[in-house]
Structure formats: structure tokens, C-alpha cells
Amino acid sequence: MSDTVKFHFDVDGSDFSSAGEASVTVKKKLRQLGYPPEVIRRVSIAMYEGEINMVIHANGGTADVEASDDEIVIILSDKGPGIPNVELAMQAGYSTAKDHIRNLGFGAGMGFPNMKKYTDEMRIDTVVGQGTTITMKVRF
Amino acid sequence: MTVNALCDLLDAKVLCGETDKPFLGVYAGDFLSRAMSRVEYDCIWVTIMANVNVVAVATLTEPAAIVLAEDVVLQEDALKAAQENGLTVLSSPLSAYEICVAISQLTEESGE
Ligand SMILES: Nc1ncnc2c1ncn2[C@@H]1O[C@H](COP(=O)(O)OP(=O)(O)OP(=O)(O)O)[C@@H](O)[C@H]1O
Ligand SMILES: [Mg+2]
Hints:
The structure holds two protein chains of two kinds.
Chain A: E1 5-12, H1 21-32, H2 37-58, E2 60-67, E3 71-78, H3 86-89, H4 99-102, H5 111-118, E4 121-127, E5 131-139
Antiparallel strand pairs in A: 1-2, 2-3, 3-5, 4-5
Chain B: H1 3-9, E1 13-16, E2 26-28, H2 32-38, E3 44-47, H3 52-61, E4 65-68, H4 76-84, E5 89-91, H5 96-109
Parallel strand pairs in B: 2-3, 3-4, 4-5
Antiparallel strand pairs in B: 1-5
The complex binds adenosine-5'-triphosphate (ATP) and magnesium ion.
Adenosine-5'-triphosphate (ATP) binds next to helix 2 and helix 5 of chain A.
């Protein structure tokens, strides 16, 4: 595993039913590459939450993953509405998800708390009206 | 304790997947981002959600089986996705509470 392996995905924002596909693909690839189960679990959780957020809050975006010897970097970028109050959005239980989204099982307001908990580094760059880029690192 | 034993115990139908395998622990809940961090590898996930998003979460977390409560069955696209990803899904007439109690009693009896 000495070379960095890169993955790129376009995440469709119009289809809730395929949401999570990029994360599932990354999980399967990381397993093939022999990464430890605990690392795969952390990456899966963090990436899934970020991917779903792009679908339900930002009409889709792109996901890039770079896997190397000692860390996995996940970059999720969208051109959605941006996040007006990041501190508030980070709070456990805070969600702006509408009823039809909640009926699918989303909207507990635990996505960001999960991303923070399962990664070693998380950075949110967001501009209201322009979009959001989330960079997460899982080290091992 | 195996998933097979649960089918009898919970009067459950097998919607898809292997049942001849052990499990350890139970998580009951329907919010996906809570399940995402609480469903452990090889546990039983009890829920009443039955859409493709549940299948995605289970594909990432790998419970031994999903047990759908109150006779809920997987939506058609979700069943297809569950089969493709090798998940085990059961459907029981019992409520989530009753399912948890039954598993707890069985676990105690068998001393696990
Ligand atoms: N990519 C994004 N673009 C715009 N707003 C976002 C984005 N991601 C998150 N948010 C905002 O931050 C809030 C909190 O996000 P978080 O993932 O923690 O919870 P949620 O998505 O509402 O529910 P859950 O993740 O538990 O299903 C969201 O409700 C939304 O208002
Ligand atoms: Mg979320």
C-alpha cells in the first residue's frame, strides 16, 4: 500500500435511493486494498454522512478520496446553499431536514457529530449561496 | 446464538440472505445517522424503516441481520439492493420492544 490510491465520484442530488453509493464503493475498494476493519468503519461512517448531506441539503456534489499508507483523506464538495451557522449545524440534534426527508430516516442531526467523532481532522469551508467543502482525515 | 434461532423465536420470515450465522448484541432504532454509529459488526439491527437507505447503512455497518418489526417488509428496490449486497433481512410480526425482550430472554437462558 505504498502508493496513494485516488477515487472520484459525482454524487447525484436528485436521487435519494442511490444516496450512499459512493461510500459503499469506497468501502469495498478499501477492503480489497487490505485496510484494517476499524479504519474502514471510520471512513465509511464519515463519508456516508457527508455524502448524504450533499444529497439532502445541497442537491449533490463531488466526492474525492485519497488513500495512502497512514491516512485517508475525504473531500466532499458541493455548490449548494452553504451553511449560515456552522457552530449550530455541528450541534448534536440540530437539523433543518423537512418532513419528507425525515420520513426516510434522515434528520436526527447526528451527521456532523458522527463525522467529527470518527475522523482525526475535519474542516468545513462554506459560503452561503455558493457551496460547501468538507475535508476529513482518518489517520492510523 | 444464531440468526436461525431468531426466526423461530420471533416468528420471522426470511426476506433474504443467510441465517446460519452467529450474532452478538442488538441495536434498535430508526434514525439512520444514529444507526450508522451504533450498529456494530455482526449485531442485530431492529428497525421499522424499510427503504434503500437502510440497506446502504447496513452495507456499510454489516450487522448479522436486519430484523424488521411489525410485519414491515422491504420495499422492492430495497430488497434487490439487500440481495446484491449479501445482507440478511427478517420480518417479524412483533414490535421492536417485543423483539428486544425476546432476544434478551433467549440470550440469558443460553447463558451468552
Ligand atoms: N452540504 C451541506 N450544505 C448545506 N447545509 C448542510 C450541508 N450539510 C449539512 N448541512 C446543514 O447542517 C445541518 C446538520 O447536518 P447533520 O448532518 O448533522 O444533520 P442532518 O443531515 O440534518 O440529519 P442526519 O445527518 O442525522 O440525518 C443540516 O440539517 C443542514 O441544515
Ligand atoms: Mg446529515
